[in-house]
């Protein structure tokens, strides 16, 4: 179960409200005097103060919990107003003896362009640790990852901001089989993250019954998943577009993630039937 929160985020991108202990403030490029024009996205899906809570089931075992939190207000970075978003994942106490996980991801997302200016990753998984600091310079189309510069396309996302950008996409006229793409930088590489629309359904969950949109992210077979179609994501079919349930078959079993709570949504949950 390496890269636990990476999996949660890919299972729809999964709380700390501060930087992890010992972490540095993320670097960011200064945008003063720069004249590059960035896109302006009409975001009606999320807002500061939103919190999404999840539970991770590993087979029949309750293995962990996750949280996505948009901190109140905005912060100023690269001369832009940004959302500060924190994603956390941890194994529950009864699972710690087997595989202890304490992961925190943070991203600072441009309020208008919905793209990151800084990204922080602090991972502890079964004794394995990782700390990453990314500074995105969209003016120069580069990202400095742990002191090394990489070229990227304009508006490239990190693994957490990708989820929030996807929520701004209008799926009103989406047809079964339509594929959507998001450029994403992670682990020293540029990935073209793709997800396929599979239609609209009704889903019964522990939290109630909802109208949902069903997606299949195109994953990399052999790294975490058995096949490239082993991940299914159910998203509320309303203006919020939040993940309600994610199912995956991975190399070491099966994983299911369910939404257990939410607060601070921008819109009413009109997808809820009962």
List the helices and strands and how they pair.
Elements: H1 4-10, E1 51-58, E2 61-70, E3 75-77, E4 80-91, H2 93-96, E5 101-110, E6 116-125, E7 128-137, E8 142-145, E9 148-151, H3 161-167, E10 179-186, E11 189-205, E12 208-218, E13 231-236, E14 243-250, E15 253-263
Antiparallel strand pairs: 1-2, 1-15, 2-4, 3-4, 4-5, 5-6, 6-7, 7-8, 8-9, 10-11, 11-12, 12-13, 13-14, 14-15
Description:
The chain has 274 residues and is mostly beta strands. It has a single domain (4-17, 38-263), classed as Beta Barrel (YmcC-like fold). Helix content is 7%, strand content 48%. The protein has 3 helices and 15 strands. It has a 15-stranded antiparallel beta sheet that branches. A hairpin with a 6-residue loop joins β13 and β14 (243-250). The longest helix has 7 residues, at 4-10. The protein is globular, with a radius of gyration of 18 Å. Mean pLDDT is 84; it is low at 1-25.
CATH topology: YmcC-like fold
Q: Which series of helices and strands comes N to C?
A: HEEEEHEEEEEHEEEEEE
Q: How much strand?
A: over 45%
Q: What is the number of E strands?
A: 15
Shape: globular
Q: Give the low-confidence spans.
A: 1-25
Number of helices: 3
User: What is the distance, rounded to the nearest whole angstrom, between the alpha carbons of the first and last residues?
Assistant: 35 Å
Average pLDDT metric: 84
Radius of gyration: 18 Å
What is the second-level CATH architecture? Beta Barrel
List the quaternary state of the chains: single chain
Number of discrete domains: 1
User: How much helix is in the residues?
Assistant: under 10%
């Amino acid at each position: 179960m390496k890269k636990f929160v990476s999996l949660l985020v890919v299972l729809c991108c999964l709380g700390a409200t501060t930087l992890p202990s010992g972490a540095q403030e993320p670097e960011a490029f200064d945008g003063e005097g720069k004249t590059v024009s960035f896109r302006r996205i009409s975001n009606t899906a999320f807002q500061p103060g939103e919190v999404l809570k999840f539970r991770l089931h590993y087979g029949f075992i309750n293995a962990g919990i996750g949280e996505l939190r948009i901190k109140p207000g905005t912060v100023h970075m690269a001369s832009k107003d940004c959302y500060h978003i924190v994603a956390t994942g941890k194994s529950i106490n009864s699972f710690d003896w087997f595989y202890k996980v304490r992961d925190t991801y943070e991203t600072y997302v441009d309020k208008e362009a919905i793209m990151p200016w800084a990204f922080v990753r602090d991972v502890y998984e079964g004794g394995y640790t990782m700390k990453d600091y990314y500074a995105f310079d969209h003016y120069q189309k580069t990202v400095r990852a742990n002191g090394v510069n990489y070229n990227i396309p304009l508006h490239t996302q990190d693994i957490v901001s990708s989820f929030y950008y996807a929520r701004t996409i209008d799926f009103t006229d989406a047809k079964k089989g339509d594929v959507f793409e998001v450029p994403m930088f992670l682990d020293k590489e540029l990935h073209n993250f793709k997800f396929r629309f599979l239609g609209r359904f009704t889903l019964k969950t522990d939290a109630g019954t909802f109208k949902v949109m069903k997606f299949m992210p195109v994953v990399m077979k052999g790294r975490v998943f058995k096949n490239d179609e082993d991940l299914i994501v159910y998203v509320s079919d309303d203006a919020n577009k939040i993940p309600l349930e994610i199912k995956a078959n991975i190399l070491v079993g099966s994983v299911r993630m369910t939404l257990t709570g939410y607060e601070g949504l921008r819109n009413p949950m009109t997808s809820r039937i009962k």
